[in-house]
Known about the structure:
The structure holds three protein chains of three kinds. By secondary structure, chain A is mainly alpha-helical. Chain A has a single domain (5-223), classed as MetI-like (MetI-like fold). Chain A has helices at residues 14-47, 52-67, 70-85, 91-117, 120-128, 133-163, 175-185, 193-223. The longest helix of chain A has 34 residues, at 14-47. The mean pLDDT of chain A is 88. By secondary structure, chain B is α/β, with parallel strands linked by helices. Chain B has helices at 45-52, 76-82, 99-109, 115-128, 144-156, 174-189, 201-207, 225-230, 235-242, 251-262, and strands at residues 5-16, 19-30, 34-38, 60-65, 68-69, 84-87, 162-166, 193-197, 210-215, 218-223. In chain B, the strands form two sheets. In chain B, strands 6-7-8-3-9-10 form a six-stranded mixed sheet, with helices on both faces. In chain B, strands 2-1-4-5 form a four-stranded antiparallel sheet, covered by helices on one side. The two termini of chain B are 38 Å apart. The model of chain B has no long low-confidence stretch (mean pLDDT 86). Chain C has eight helices and no strands. Chain C is mostly helical. Chain C is elongated, with a radius of gyration of 22 Å. In chain C, helix 6 (137-167) runs antiparallel to helix 8. Chain C has a single domain (12-224), classed as MetI-like fold (Orthogonal Bundle), CATH 1.10.3720.10. Chains in contact: A-C, B-C. The A-C interface holds A 2, 5, 67-72, 75-76, 79-80, 83-87, 158, 162-163, 165-166, 168-169, 176, 179, 183, 191-199, 201-202, 205-206, 209-210, 213 and C 1-4, 7, 68-69, 71-74, 76-78, 80-81, 84-89, 162, 166-170, 172-173, 180, 183-184, 187, 193-194, 196-197, 200-201, 204-205, 208-209, 212.
Amino acid sequence: MPDSGINVLFLGKNFLRLLEGLWVTMRISLIAVILSIPLGILFGMFMTLKNPITRTLSRVYLEFIRIMPQLVLLFIAYFGVTRAFGWNLSAELSAVLVFTLWGTAEMGDLVRGALISIPKHQYDSAAALGMTKAQTFVFIIVPQTMRRLIPLTINLTTRMIKTTSLVVLIGITEVLKVGKQIIDANRFDYPTAALWVYGVIFALYFLACWPISSLAKKLEQRWR
Amino acid sequence: MEESIQLQVSGLKKKFGAETVLNGIDLDVHKGEVVVVLGPSGCGKSTLLRCMNGLEAPTEGIICLDGAAITSGGKNITKQRQKIGMVFQSYDLFPHKNILDNITLAPVKVQKRAKGEVEQQAEKLLKRVGLWEKRKAYPRELSGGQKQRVAIVRALCMNPEVMLFDEVTAALDPEMVREVLDVMLELAGQGMTMVIVTHEMQFARAIADRILFLDGGGIVEEAPPEQFFTNPKTQRAKDFLQTFTYEKRNKIPSEIESFERRN
Amino acid sequence: MRLRFDFWNQLNTEFMVKYLPWYVDAAKLTVAIAFWGILLALLVGVICSILRYYRVPVLHRIVAVYIELSRNTPLLVQLFFLYFGLPKLGIVLSAESCAIIGLTFLGGSYMAESIRSGLESIEKSQLESAASLGMGQLLMMKEVIFPQALAVSVPGVCANMIFLIKETSVVSGIALADLMYVTKDLIGLYYETDEALLMLVIAYLIILLPVSILASVLERRLRYAGFGN
């Protein structure tokens, strides 16, 4: 009887607990995004340097972070770094660390892409008007870069929210874990609880990500 | 020429939303006749051509090829289009196919003709326009004029009864215009039925059997080329022709004048 | 704080050799799931992009909803719903099937968007010149639109493939013995963390590097040998 299972959501504080669980991953993504944006801007500018050493270094960093599944990075941070440096990183702290490293790489690449997309004649015509390098950067380059960058950054946020769902696999109690606890606790009274609980979690993620990615799409279309 | 009407346009109206682009066009094109459509930009001449090939559906009126109506959409239109060749301003060769494949694609796949026979015809046509040695090249390797000649050959290889040319030299560098127009002149000499939209006045005068002057979505004047260019009847045609003659100094005032008179 | 600079010297190679077969089996599973997932995602992607491109009534709206659902939810949540939720409706699927279905559900929308951007990059004048040669819709799609769209879509499609291979790492969440699962198992059982993680990284590099290199070669070739006007 799949229709009785839905009641489990309204039992006690169950729905509230799910929301709290969702907040755990949201908090990790928010912290990571907030840290990634300034770090990524610096990293992106760093990547446009002509120096071959910085270029190789940043390339290797970017490619390694990019090619490894985020879950592998999480495992390395959580299981590996703890031992290697003798730090005792909590699961949550290692998650913030990994997603910041990942976000910085992704953000950096977006910044680099936006910077090199500015055609050379923009620099030339600014110079022809007698602008200094700093003036060119502030008045010409940054405003044009922002238009490209803002929708992509918003998109990065939804990717971050989706990806942080992985933290359940290093034992953080977040929405999926809370869901499982609720299902287990009501195994006998509500045998179909799993369908409803996981269905609701699916819907919650959608409600969290969809408005953000729609906003990004709108901005992208308007500013094209 | 009375005996054989090949393309017949009657009461053609075309609206895009609230804007009326063609407002009642009647036109008979006879077999072997070359009709050149002139007019200021936005007068609807391209739309007229596009309706003739079913690329735009008429809002009202009917277009017949050999007495059969051309209706946009549906299976019938692909049959009709095989009898009407069309060449566009932007050449639109298929960039992923070489020149020979561009030409043979439709005759083989659409008309289901034997590949060997089509290639023989393509060879003959390509040699005629002087591009046989480019048969293995890709469109990007050709100049605009060469691409446009290939586009004409591509349309001709379908053995059409009528050819439509939509400002085919408008996108070309001046030195390449000639090579394309020469091909068209030769074609006219061989008795092909043609409807041409162009801005090349000298060429229009040389090739046309009849000039059709369109303005504001309607036919304003219809005359043999000599008469149209030397002694146009309507004021609008006179104004239009004047925009092509340049006199030192008073070029701009005369243009402003004609602009004002038209409005 | 105890910094370890002797990482390579301290590796337990005996352990690594002993458990290598575990990783080989796990890698096979990862590759198999990725292969089927990508193949089906491509199929779904082609169908959805065509429905969207031609704006097929009703269906193109359904596809739009599917794409939003798929792109705005994490694969792990999709898998939990498939694996733990659906059986309550009487739909019982093996973990492998769930993984492949989940990957297809996720990847289908990404593929659809990449392919559609290729289809929409074809200029209208190309379609008109094909139409003026008497081509029907089917022939036009096969001979004119699709081959050109492919060249535009390939970089996006390749990026999606790499993305999907990486995403397979979450199937350990529904107890499939993939690379992540085996690694976690070995860490839990023997505490040989460095060795287990090193083998994990190497395994993913072996799978992903060739695909990634192939993708960039393909992309470069398409860009330079492009047949654009």
